[in-house]
Every structure is written in C-alpha cells, then in structure tokens.
UniProtKB/TrEMBL annotation, chain A:
Record's bilayer topology term: Multi-pass membrane protein
Annotated InterPro entries: MetI-like, MetI-like_sf, UgpAE/MalFG_permease
PANTHER family, per database record: BLL4140 PROTEIN
A GO CC annotation given for this chain: plasma membrane
Origin superkingdom: Bacteria
Taxon lineage: Bacteria, Pseudomonadati, Pseudomonadota, Alphaproteobacteria, Hyphomicrobiales
Protein name, UniProt field: Multiple sugar transport system permease protein
Parts of the chain that traverse the membrane: 25-51, 89-109, 121-141, 172-196, 229-252, 279-302
SUPFAM superfamilies listed in its UniProt record: MetI-like
Source organism of the structure: Mesorhizobium sangaii
Protein localization: Cell membrane
Record keyword Zinc present: no
TrEMBL record, chain B:
Transmembrane annotation, as ranges: 21-40, 82-101, 113-137, 149-169, 190-215, 250-271
Membrane disposition: Multi-pass membrane protein
Family from the record: Belongs to the binding-protein-dependent transport system permease family.
Name of the protein in its database record: Multiple sugar transport system permease protein
CDD domains: TM_PBP2 (cd06261)
Domain (ABC transmembrane type-1): residue spans on this chain: 78-271
Lineage, uppermost ranks: Bacteria, Pseudomonadati, Pseudomonadota, Alphaproteobacteria, Hyphomicrobiales
GO biological process, one term: transmembrane transport
SUPFAM superfamilies tied to this protein: MetI-like
Protein location: Cell membrane
GO cellular component: plasma membrane
UniProt keyword Transmembrane present: yes
Record keywords, A-Z: Cell membrane, Membrane, Sugar transport, Transmembrane, Transmembrane helix, Transport
Amino acid sequence: MTSITAATPAPPRARKLTGAGRRQWIGLLYVAPAVALVVVFFLIPLGMTAWMSLHNWPLMGERSYIGLGNYVAILHDTRFWNALRFTGWYTLVVTIAIFAVAFPLALFVERPRPLTNLYRTMFFMPAVVGFASASLLWSWLLNVDSGLFSPAAYDLGLIDRKFNLLATFQPAFWSIIAMVVWKVAGFTMIILMAGLQSIPQDLQEAAVIDGAGPFARFRAITLPLMRRTLALALILSVAGSILAFDQFYIILRGGPRNQTLTAVYWIFNQSFVSFKLGYGAALSMVLLVILVALSLVQLWLLRKPEGLD
Amino acid sequence: MAQATSRNRRLAARIAEHSTGIIASVLFAAPIVWAVLSAFKPAQEARLPPLPPWPTSGISLENYATLNSFGDGLWVSAQNSIYVSAMTVVLSVAVSVLAGYGFSRFRFPFKDLFFILILSTIMIPFQSILTPIFLVLTKLGLHNTLTGLVGVYVTLQLPFSIFMMRNAFDAVPREIEEAARMDGAGNITMLIKVMLPLVWPGVVTIALFAFLGAWNEFLAALVLMTDQSKFTLPVMMTALQSGRFGAIDWGAVQAGVTVMMVPCLILFLVLQRFYIRGLMAGAVK
C-alpha cells in the first residue's frame, strides 16, 4: 500500500499538509459501500449471466457445460425472434406516438403564460405513477364488462354490442399504445421543453427580422439546436420500450394468442416459468448486446456539438 | 377600429389556447380521477361500468375492506411497500452522499475507474441480470426477503444519485471546508454539519427518485418475492387482478390502484421543484 502511495506523485498543494496523503486515501472508504453494492448486485451477476449462458442450468438438479449450445438453440427459437420482432415494432410505433403528442405539448407549455405551470403539472402527473399502477388502472378501463371504454361507447350508441378491446391483436396493441402515450408523454414533454428553452431568444428574433416564417424558423433554428435534446428523449423512449414488460404482462398476459410477448417477457418466461436458467441467461446476453450497442449510438448522438466546449 | 379587431383576435387566440390546455389537462387527469372516485363506490356499484365516475349510491370504503381480505391482505403488502421504499430511500441517500463526497473531494487510486464503473451500470438493463441476482441473493441467505429487494433497488438508484451528489458537492466552494477544518472539524463532522445543509436540495431530489423507483418497481419484486407475505403492492395487486384469489373484484382493483398512485402524486405535487431539477440534471448531462 505504502509503495503505491510513494509511487503516486502527490499534488503540490496536498504535500504541504502533514498526513494529507493519508487523508486522501480516506476517499476510498467513502465510496466503498457504493462500489461493494455495484460489485455484488451488478458485476458478479453480469459475469454470472455470461457464465450461465454456456450451461444447461435447471433450477433443481445437475447443471452441465454445453458451450455455445444455448446460442445455437436461440438461432432456431422462432418464438424469441417473434418476440424480438414484436418488441421492435412496438418500440417504433410507441416512440413515434409519444413524440407526436409530446412535441406539440412541449411547444404549448414552453413559454411562461398564465396557467402554464398548471398545465405542465397536469400533463406530467401520469408520469410519476408507476407502470404497474397505470397498467392495472387501464386493465380495468379496458375491461369489456366493468370497464369504461367499451360500455361508454355502447351507451353512446357508437357500437351495437360491447366490444372486447383485449380479445384481438390490433385493438389490444393500440390500447397499450394509448396507455403508454398517456403515461409517458408528459415526461418526454418536459425534456423537450428544456431543450426548447435553451434556444437563445435573440436567434429567433433575428430570424423574424430576416422575414423567416414560423415553419422556416422551426426547421432552421429549433430542430438543429435541439439535436442533443431530441436524441436524449429518443433514446430514453427507445431503451424504455425495448425493455417493456409491465404493461404487456399485466394487461394482456402476452396475449391474445401470445402475440404480444416482448423480449423481456420471453426471457422472464424461459427463466422463471420454465426455469431454464442457462437458456434465459443466453437470451439475456443477446438483449444486453442490443442495449449496449444502443448505448454506444447514444453516446455518439449526444456528443457535444463541434466547436462548442 | 383596427385596434379593436386586433384586441378581438388576441382574445380569440387566448380562448383557443386555454381551451386546448384545459381539454388536454382533463384527458391526462381523467383516468386517475376516474379510478380514485370509483374506488369509493359500494362494492355492488363498483362492479358496473363507471358511468358516472363518482359514487351515486353513497360513499363507501367497502372496496378497501374487500381488498384487505384477499390473500394476506392490503395492509401487509402496503407495509412491505412502505418498508422497502423507506429503506431504499435511507440507504441510497446514505450510500450516495458518502460516495458523492468521496468522488468530489478526495484523490485515491482507481477513483476514475470506480466512478465510470458505477455510472456505466446505467447502460446494462437489470432485467437481463435478474436470474443471477436471484442466485446471488440465495447465496447470501437473502432470497425472498425484503432486505434483498432493498439491496437491488439501492443499487439501481446509484448511478443517478451518485452522479447527482458528486455534482452537488462539486458546487460547494472548497473555502468553506478549509475554514471548518481550521476550526478542527473531522471528516464526518464536516460532512454532516457543514456540507449536508449545503447540498440539501440534491438529497431531497435523490430521495424522491429513490422512493418513486422502489414504490413502483414491478419485475424484480415479481421475480424475487415468491412468498405472498412478502409481496409489494404492485405484485399483490397483479395477483388479485389476474384472478389468483378467485373472481376479479374490479372495485378492489380500483382501491388498490388508488393506494398505489396517491403517495406518488402527493409527493410529486409537494416536491415538484426537486423532481424537475433531477430530471434536468439527468437531461443536461
């Protein structure tokens, strides 16, 4: 220990104080609990995931090393690829839908006006409710007999007989989209609003003087200056949607006819319903690679604009 | 004349604006209000479609009573949720304040490595390492315990809250510490008596995020808590809604959803400033 301290050149200011070197070491004690937690609940499980993925690992009984066997099996696991395809489709649709609602809302609440704060709060409220609560709430609203939508439409004479929104794929899928947009749009709105507010006002004014219309200003000033904010909102939405589970489990149980199983749902089924822990780990590794790749794209998209700090 | 037209036009624009705002507000609030109001209907009425949303045959707490009679009852799950959320708040604040201070004020070997290690966990979805977490907890004898769940939740909070606290401590001028040191304050005294009051807003922010995270988390609780007496509210309510305790009582679902939502909404309304701050801190990074 002492040799390392001696080898590390102490900063000039610290050297003047006696015992300052040792005092700096105390920093390790301060961060130790955090590092320990990350090691126990993150690093070790991460290593284990990789290790387990190379095994046939049932919950009870003997586990055996099978090399890349699980990965080969994944190649032939059409239901996993279907789940992944569905997750991709859901991510695409829900992200577009969230932005289509959140961007106009952000423009609406950006400028301070009377009542703006109230509107912001109202739009944001569903975002602090958990996904599980929101899903339970909507599973009731969507219920054919005791819910709101179908009976209300029936009472208003819009439909001849009660229609079960959750019985077939399309209405079920779009119901989930509606619920997620309701829950998440306020969150995305706040992020986009922060981006809008960071655009210097004089830039807009100069453009007005130059005779640029609102649409031209939006394209030439707002969008380019919001690149980082847009990228952030986009990534949060994409990463969150790829990991979607709660709403599909609670509202649809993966149905109708297993058509709404997401990637995480499939991993959950393999690991904790069928107890194929090794196979589940291999599936997790595939998902992990996808998300890490996404994070790298994120770092690239979020890079500081050139020329600015 | 021209002045009057422009004034009229401005008035029309304002009316259009506020009607948009009000309609959108109603749409966002409606599902929440609908559930909270319906939960107060008598059981008989709660089974029917919620039109109108408010109770028409008298206010009743029947649904809450029913909810308490399912499985181990509402109160047990609520206690579990309260315990898990409170412990997550306390521990993640303690761990992050210490670590934030350490990263901000000391130089030590592997400092950058540790900091990057903690922050980079945000890139790895915990959903993909749940199975091994399950096995690690079993090894530690924490399988199916609320303590184990707290450990997982605290770890999930760390990247955000340590980043937040490091920045908060960075913003405190070093002169303040040096003055306190002259007065003979030791490290821990200094942290608690001198620094903590200065970074208080940051602490409130991370506490709020820790509470919401733990209170609302579903998948880890579903996987790790196998015993009904350990269920948190989301897991218990999902079991009820899936018909695990017999025919689905939608009145009880409304009551449960209300219990789950109201604490989050109250905390958010009271501490809104801190919530938005945290969001911005995350967003600006």
